[in-house]
């Protein structure tokens, strides 16, 4: 097993906590002292500067101080307090945050699971907790895509729930209220499968609070009092069954709670039910992972250098347990690969593959196998503070921070995010075995193939040597999309080396895009022909769409195929001609006269330019003319266009079984704002 470094992201931030990097889908966050770094994959087909297509944005640490909103006369309380209380006031900056200077830093940030917003299910929220106990949820600003704005102030909602703004008259009462309003941990539900979205947080006073996140803000649903303060919390949601909350307590014990069962309690009603407490009172818990299978929970707990695994059923019965001593300094990262398989990292830089197995030969019922993973990361200079992996486990991210003093230039950007590939999770194999025939959930694998391909050309040979057999189906379109990936890798490599070869590759890339579009056009035309056959008449917009698509297909039939794809001509052109022969039988009278946008000269319906040679701007996705006066929508990934949602919905009558007009036909990325048609 080997992790291979592909590139690094250097940032001028300071890392102060382990388990500080997290990934959901194609978004990676790294929590530093003053900022939360957000890396969002923006997959592009052509990248000429040989870089990884991740866009960086930042969320500044919140300056919120929940205890500062408590009504207390600091001077009076201080003078009336005992010596021990005064010592506590001096040591705890959360008690009097409005008097002395406070030092703010991030504690942790959490990415929400996908599906928070029904209209844009790929949009995510980020919850951030600072060392003053302030919990804020942020959402990406819609217009600029780089600014994160506060979406919900959870601390303010919680304070309004428990505090009635009465004056605090003693140091004991101040300490109690400060513990009540100080939030120590947070967790989104693991999977969003129904509305409203749920999350849970814990407070310093020992309260565990379940909340609903709706369009109008946060609603507190249930509050449970625990004997100790929770330090780590994990919310496990199981569709149609129980909800479990796993709580790492201050003493090092693990408490498990179960919330209401679907079908037994009223919709939306949740009542906490304590199940059991596991583990001993020793070392504090720093991370919790959980997976569900066969009505059982496999829970992994990190305590310093130890990894503990316990298996329980839904009633809390302990089925097995095992402890692994890594014999290293400290575990700082825990990332699932697949069921019962994990990657762990330690502070000195050791990377290990962990497998949890059920065995009858062991008295504990479980055993852990550990295998060291080789890597070329610079762990002699960097300590590892966490690990994360993308959706398909093709991209791996390791968070590094200097373990020894560097020169003054390196210290300007000490934080290093290593972008790696894992040889046990081959990205190209993942793409070739993709049964969905869509790239929308595989952009991370495509990016690894593209970026690795311009460094190691041999890795692209399985795509270069394949002989395409094109038909008018989804599989042919997907094979062409894989060709775009290998052409993109070559373009990135040759752009600054061989101009002639680079231009040739650009021509081939554009041609493959045209093939994808013409197959899509044929599928839409066939759909319109079927509509015409069964209904005899098409509406005005459908007639216009048929005319434009028919003209586009005809331009491909008279086009000469480039040399490397010349063998496709004899097989594909007869299929295109057959579609045109069927479409030509449908009469489509001119709906409106098309004129040039520059000189207002008339344009022939079969031409792509006016008599003066001005190019006709038609939408790339479906080749429907802009003269249909429709709103345009741009694909964020490859900058191609489709016409607006209302027009498309009218033309295709909301039918996406043959052609999903809500997604880009080249990269499968959803067009924003029309995910529901």
From TrEMBL:
Q: Which residues form the Transcription factor IIIC 90kDa subunit N-terminal domain?
A: 112-239
* Source organism superkingdom: Eukaryota
Give the protein name, as stated in the record: Transcription factor IIIC 90kDa subunit N-terminal domain-containing protein
Q: What InterPro entries does the record point to?
A: TFIIIC_delta_N (IPR024761)
Q: What organism is this sequence from?
A: Anopheles dirus
